[in-house]
Every structure is written in structure tokens, then in C-alpha cells.
Amino acid sequence: MIGLVLSVLLSLNGVEVQARDVPDDQGGAVELRVNFSRPLDISKILIYRVANGDTVSKKVAELDVNGQTKIKYIDKHVKNGVPVQYTLFLISQLGDTLGTVRTQMVEAKPSIFNKRKTFLLLAVLSYIALLIYFMSQARRGRELYLRPIAGLIEVDNAIGRATEMGRPILFSPGLSTISDVATIAALNILAYITRKVAAYETRIIVPVYDPIVYTIAQEVVKDAYTAAGRPDLYRAEDVFFLTSRQFAYAAGVSGIMVREKTAANFFMGYFFAESLILAETGASTGAIQIAGTDAVTQLPFFITACDYTLMGEELYAAGAYLAKDPRLTATIKGQDVMKATLATLLLLITLIAFIGPKLGLHINWETFKAYIVGL
Amino acid sequence: MILVFVMGIIGFSLYFIPHPAARQFENTLSQWSIAIGSFAIFLAITSLIRRYINNIKRGKDVFYSIVALVALFGMAGLGLFAGIDEKSLFQKIFINVNVPLDATMFSLLAFYVTSAAYRAFRARNVEATLLLVTAVVVILGISTIGDTQVWLRKTAEWIMNVPNLAQKRGILIGVGLGVIATSVKIILGIERNWMGG
Amino acid sequence: MANNEKKTTTFLEKIGQIPRFWIYLGLLVILMLPLILRIKAKPRMGMETKMVYDFIDSLPPGSVIMLSFTYGPSARPELEPMALAIMRHAYMRGIRVMGMTLSVEGTGLGLEAMTRVAKEFEEAGYPLTYGEDWVYLGYKTGWAMVIRGIGGDFHETFPRDYYGNDTRKMALTRDIQNYDDIALVIDFASGGSPGSWITYAYQQFDQKVAAGVTAVMGADWQPYIRTGQLVGMLNGMKAAADYEAKTIEMMEKRFGYTPKPYATVGIVSVTWAQIYLIILIIIGNISFFALRRRRRR
Fold first, then answer.
1. CATH architecture of C47-258
2. What is the rounded distance in angstroms from the CA atom of residue C134 to the CA atom of residue C95?
3. Are A127 and A36 found together in one domain?
4. Which of A16, C144, C256, C288 has its CA 20 to 30 A from that of A172?
5. Residue-range domain boundaries for chain B
6. Is residue A7 pLDDT above 50, yes or no?
7. 157-196 in chain A: CB under 8 A from chain B
8. Is A112 contained in some domain?
9. Residue A215 lies inside a defined structural domain of this protein
10. Residue B155 CB coordination number (10 Å)
11. Are both A349 and A311 inside the same structural domain?
């Protein structure tokens, strides 16, 4: 809702005061703007607020002017829907009150839609439309080329290796919660690996960090065995909640890798500092290791200690890659197109930022940040 | 799937709606997820207990399984019946056993980083050499040696703030797009592996 | 000649394949020596650490800052010295401190850190009063809800402190309504909690936020300093040592009292370990090039 925008021309020469409802917020806030059109001997401004129907006004702020000509103050303690009026006392350097300015009634109101995020909404909707377009193209049978990702090609080899050696496979879905999309991507990969593992009659061990992820991982593994036609091979004790403490989890998984002598380790999902402990321990047992994470700070550790690493978005693409479902692989195409678009836009904006001022083009970056980025 | 679709659309919309009613609804959803999480903990602990009891029955890792069960029930019992305030036995065990153990595991990283770096940082080709030189400059620059050699610190800061940050942002943009794509697939019901089907 | 060549090559081969045991043993000795000998460093404050220092230094006496102890025992050696140093700085500037935590693990650790600094000031002859100079609010579940709740109504979010005292009655907290009354929030985190403080406290309430993080996570939060979403950042043990050295110097000058150093001793171990690592890398590369030359011949 658009609040009242009022402009009160100073009854005191050289001072202009505006009071308005702060737009695009959850309400409860009024913005006061004070402009000095000429230098005045004002050191402080005292702001008092009175609500409609009240007789006593309340001091809400004391602002130092410090030679500024434009002052902005946001009063965040206004009740929604209750008209309020502000009185500003202008205090001189010597402490005398030079004058007062009173605004008219203004009301704080909550907004239903944050207009500063319009561009962001349009951008996301365009991206979604792009994804849907590519999915529909794939449904029509259009072939889409995807570059090969070494880590994903090796998944089958790793499972085969474990089968030949007669040793189990370990899969860790990361240390994040189910609300993290990386965990969901990891569970998608788990489903694929479990179906393969069921076909080869190899054992898979899945120690889980989060209780909710545990309940879902259990269902994923059980249903994957059923889908592969081998529900008899499913062992409930192989998919278990280990602990919700980071380094206890690292210690537990390391112990499992050493005691069970796993032949293949998969670390998929979001990891923290324990990633190197897991990867190094697995490397010391001689297992083949494939990791995938969007935790940028952990990528160097996985790259150093694992045989193959899926970096960032490759983790999200993995589910589609392995499933070989055209609709899923089509979304990867959509991602690539969007990335190219964003890269082009970034380049253009950078060029404008550098060359613009020389050509007389001045961009208000604060407005850009507010309305394009939504900050 | 209908539930996923509806809640997905609602969750998406809430980001753009600043109204207090929307914020209140968001808080309610957070509280629901905390409540659901509490139920999940029971299931998770049951699976844990079942696993260790099965291990004991099969004679596999008996000692570790007994230690795990004793620790689980012991601490739970202490906390429930003897309190968890500052001077309680629960806190004493936490501070004197759990804290050093956690710190010990974290300390292993120092050793693992050393052996991994010794093994991995070989100048096999141009890229590996570049990686090696950069790593050495950054290691020295951000340490106290960088305090005495200002050029080293400035180079290290430049490396962290310019090329490193650029690649991080690049990866983050890719990850962000991947997250949106995966979320769309889940909301529209195209990606269903996580449901177990 | 042939025998000498064979011996040299064998030696070079060996130094390129040092067993882990010896690498770890060497590292252990290197790490322990400075701690045993209590060798202290005199570090110079880095840019990002100075941003936090300058901000706190600019706050008027009587201001209130909030510290969030969102770390566990594993990150304690890096993050606790930062927290101790910031509290010392704040108290010496007459700034009052509220402590809280969003993680269960941080509950005891936060209280211990705050109590330790209070004890230091008591030993220095400048006792602090609980409830006036510092308050510990303890753990509150809900993460984002708590952060948003402080911005809405502080007393509703924290009706009582860790000891059960009414926050509406304590001298420090009775006038705190929301973020308008809190000059700075500093989140000491080993995980992703600074993101939550930025998203909810900074974005929604314009609250000034700083972060104290482990060195591994530091790179994650650097973009936020450039955008102004973080006032500054203490990154790892180096930053902890920087700040600790400064505040120890301040306390020595003002009270003639020297608090026990942690990070300024620890950073020496870290530096020596880094040099050891570089030496190992150089040795490994010498071996690698020697072997490659032999193979080419």
C-alpha cells in the first residue's frame, strides 16, 4: 500500500521536511527527510512523535546535524494504521531552540508486495520459463548435448570395482539438513547408486548426520532396492543415523571406512571442515573416492584427496546426468543458457561502470542496488 | 506431490511479501519444522540403538557398541535426572570429555592438511606450478611473516580479494542457478528420487 | 660414478616419499615447541580486523553490543580469543556487552568466555557488575526467528537471562527494545550463522553486524565486507592474535595487568607449522624434478 507522501515547506526558512510511510516493508516505519537549503546554525534535531488521539508526545530521536545538509531518519516503532505526527525541534550550537517544524499526519502501512524485488521476481520467472521451454523441447525428442563429467562417468566403474573386490560402498549425504538443496541432490544420486548396487548385489552403507535426512534416506534406499527388484537385499541397519555432531560424525565415518574396508566412497552434499578428515581417511584405505559439494571452501580438500570431484552445480546436474531422463538433462541446458546471459550482463554492467562516466553516463548505483538487486 | 507444489509456491511467494501476516506465517512454518525435527530425532535414535544392539548380538564391534550405548543412555539420564546447569555432572563431562575430543578431531585437520599438501603440491605442469606458487604466497602472506614483509601481505590480500573472490562468485552463481533448477524440478514433481520413487 | 648416482637418486626418491608418521611427528614437535616455551608474537592488525576495532573504538561509552557465541569446542581455540579480546576492548571503552548463542554447544562456551573476562577485570582492580556491565542471555532455539524476534521485541524474545533474571528489570537490558538500542552484533561462528544475521538483522533492521570466523570459513564471508553488509571480520587465529595483542597492550598500560595470552602464542605455532609445510612442499618438488630428470635420461 502506498503511504501518504507529504511535503511540508518549512515554516522556518531554509529547512524542508518530508514525512512518509516507508514503502515495501512490513509496516511500522515512517521515514523523515530533512533538507537544509542553506547553511544554518543547527547542531541537533530533536524529534517528537504524537499518535492521533494522544495528548503527550514522545521523544523518538536526537540527531546530530554535523554540518550535513540532508538528514534521513527512519522511525521503526510506529503502529500500523495509526496516524502520527512529528514535531522537529531545531537546536543551535549554544543549545537554544531555533524553531520547530511540524509534519502533517502520516500513517505506517504494511506492503503486500516488495516492489524493490520486482526485477528479481521477473528474472527468476524468466529463468523458470526457460527451464520449462527446454523441458518441453526435450519431450519432443530434441537431442541436447551435455559435456561429459568425469566424476559421473566413473560412478559405475566405482560400483563395479567394489563388487569385484567384494567390499561395501560408503555413501555420505553431507552434513546439512533436508532444507538444503545440496542434500536433496545427494539423495537423488543415492537413489541411482542404490539401484545399481542392488543389481550387482553389493552392500551400501549410508551413515547420516541429520535425523530428518535419515528418515528420507531410509525410504530412498528401500524403494531403490524395491525398484531394482531386490527388496530382499535391503538391510535396515546399513542406513542409520550416526550423530549430529560434526567431528563425531567424521570420527564415526572414518571408523566405518577403516573397519569395513569400503572399496568406494561417495561424499555428496554439503560438508564443512571435516571434509578433509573423511577424504584423507578414505584415501589411506585405498578406496576410490568420488565427492560432490557446493561448499566452495571444501572443494580444494576434496580435489586433493579424492579421485573425482563434482564442483558446485555439477552436483545438481548429477541427478539428471545419471537418470538420463531428457526432461532432467534439459534443465542443465537451461542453466547453461542462463549462466551465459548473466555473464553477458555482468560484462555489460562492468563496461558501463568503467566507460560510462567518460561518456557522461552516470548510474545511480544505490538505486540499482535497491531495485535491480533488491537489497 | 500436491503438498510439495503448494508449499513450494507459498514458500517462493513469501520472499516477495513483506506483510506481517506473511512473516507470521513464515514463523509458524519454522515452528512446524522444529516440531517435525523433534519427531525425527526419536526415529533416528531408535535406529542408532537398534544398530548397536544388533552389532552386540552379532559379536561385531562389541566394545565400541557398548561404549556408544553407555554414553547415549548415561548422558541422557544424567541430563534428565541430575540437571544440566553450570555445576552439574552433565556439564563437567561435556566440558572435560566432549570438548577435548571435539578439539582433538579438529586438530587432526592440521596433520591431514600437511600430508595432503606434501603429496599434492607438485609442479607437474603450468597450472600446478601456478597453484603451488599462489599457495606459498598466500600461506606466508596471511601469517605473521606477512606483517614483516608488506609486499607479501599485499600480494596475498590481492590474491584473496580479486581472483579468489571472482572464482568464488562464479561458482556461487552456478550453484544458485542449480539450486533454482533443482527446486523447480522438485516443486513441479519432475524430480522424485528424494521421495523414494 | 654409477654407484654415487644411484645413492643420490635413492636419497632424492626417499625425500619425496617421506612416510606420514615422520611428517606428523615433525609437525607435532613444531606445534608444541612455541606452546611449551610460551613464545609470543607481536602481530600487526590486518585491514578487516581493524575495521571491527575502529568501529568498536568509535562507539560512545554506554553503548551496548551483542555477542553471539555460535561455535562448538572444535572452533574454540580460534574464536574464543577473539571474543575475549573484543570484550576487553568494549569494557575499557565503557561499552556494555550482552552475550547469547544460537547453538546448544555455544551455551557453556559463551558463559565461560564472558565469565573469564569479568574475572580478568576483577583481578585488574576494575570489577564489572553483572546486570549492568554484562549480561549473558544463554541459548535460544529458533535461529532466524530469534534474530528477527530481537528486531521486533527484545524482551519478548529474551524475557529472562541465563540465570533466570527478568530482562525488563536489569539495568543493562531494561532499555533495550530492539536493534535500535544495540550498536553492533558480532557473531562468532564456525558455520553459516553470519549469513542469517546478515539476512535478517542487517537486511530487515539495518543492524550493524560483524563476524568472527574460523580461517577456513573466512573466504566465504569476504564478499559481504565489500558490499557493506558486514562492518568487518576477524578471520582465524591471525585476527584473534592481532586483536588480543592490542587489547593486552591496552590493559597493561591502563591497569598494569596482563591477561593470559592465547592467540598470540597459538599464532606462533601456526606460523612455524606453515613454514614447515612450505619446506615439505619444496622438498617434495625437489624430489619430483630429480626423478623426472632421471626418467628423461
1. 3-Layer(aba) Sandwich (3.40)
2. 9
3. no
4. C144
5. 22-82, 84-120, 123-190
6. no
7. 179, 181, 184-185, 187-188, 190-192
8. no
9. yes
10. 17
11. no
C-alpha separations of C237 from B71, B148, B161, C215 in Å = 33, 17, 19, 7
Contacts of B111 in chain C (CB under 8 A): 23-24, 27
Amino acid identity at C84: L
ipTM of the complex: 0.87
Which residues from chain B sit within 8 angstroms of residue A333, using beta carbons? none
Dig out the grid coordinates for A49 from the structure.
512523535
| Judgement on whether residues A98 and A160 belong to the same structural domain of the protein | no
Would you say residue A234 lies in a domain?
A: yes
Q: d(Cα C242, Cα C248) in Å, to the nearest integer?
A: 10
What CATH code is carried by the domain that includes residue A302?
3.40.50
Per-residue pLDDT of chain B (197 residues; tens, 9 = 90+): 888 899 989 988 988 898 889 888 887 887 788 788 888 888 899 989 999 999 999 998 899 999 999 999 999 999 999 987 778 899 889 888 988 888 888 889 899 999 989 988 888 889 889 989 999 999 998 888 888 888 998 899 899 888 988 888 888 888 888 888 888 888 888 877 776 65
Residues with Cβ < 8 Å from C153, sequence gap 6 or more? Answer: C177, C178
- Residue A366 grid cell: 544505490
What is the count of residue pairs from B and C with beta carbons less than 8 Å apart? Answer: 107
Name which of A205, A312, A191, A177 is nearest A265 in CA terms: A205
Same domain, A162 and A72: no
What would the pLDDT profile of A249-263 be if each residue is shown by its tens digit?
999 999 999 999 999
- Mean pLDDT for all residues in chain A: 87
In this prediction, residue A4 carries a pLDDT of 39
Task: Please give, rounded to a whole number of angstroms, the shortest distance from the CA of B56 to a CA of chain C.
Answer: 31
> Is the Cβ of C171 closer than 8 Å to some Cβ of chain B?
no
Task: Name the domain count of chain A.
Answer: 3
DSSP element (H, E) containing C28: helix C20-37
Tell me the CATH number at A31.
Answer: 2.60.40.10
Q: What is the pLDDT of residues A141-155, one digit of tens each?
A: 777 777 888 888 899
Three-class HEC string of chain A? CCCCEEEEECCCCCEEEEEEECCCCCCCCEEEEEEECCCCCCCEEEEEEEECCCCCCEEEEEEECCCCCEEEEEECCCCECCCEEEEEEEECCCCCEEEEEECCCECECCCCCCHHHHHHHHHHHHHHHHHHHHHHHHHCCCCCCCCCCHHHHHHHHHHHHHHHHCCCEEEECCCCCCCCHHHHHHHHHHHHHHHHHHHHCCCEEEEECCHHHHHHHHHHHHHHHHHCCCHHHCCHHHEEECCCCHHHHHHHHHHHHHHHCCCEEEEECCCCCCHHHHHHHHHHCCCEEEEEECCHHHHHHHHHHCCEEEECHHHHHHHHHHHCCHHHHHHHHHHHHHHHHHHHHHHHHHHHHHHHHHHCCCCCHHHHHHHHHCC
Q: Are residues A230 and A364 in the same domain?
A: no
Answer for the pair A178, A212: CB distance below 8 angstroms, yes or no: yes
Q: Name A291's bridge partners.
A: A267, A309
Q: How many residues does chain A have?
A: 375
Of B26, C261, B55, C198, nearest to A26 (Cα)? B26
Q: Does A316 share its domain with A367? A: no
B184 interfacial to chain A (CB closer than 8 Å): yes
pLDDT at A2: 34
The residue among A51 and C216 whose pLDDT is bigger is A51
Please give the residue range of the domain that contains residue A364: 120-133+333-373
Examine the domain organization and report whether A18 and A81 are in the same domain. Answer: yes
Cβ contact, residue pair C43, B99, below 8 Å: no
Quick one: cell of C171?
539495568
pLDDT in tens, A277-320: 999 999 999 999 999 999 888 998 999 899 999 998 899 888 88
Same domain, A237 and A153: yes
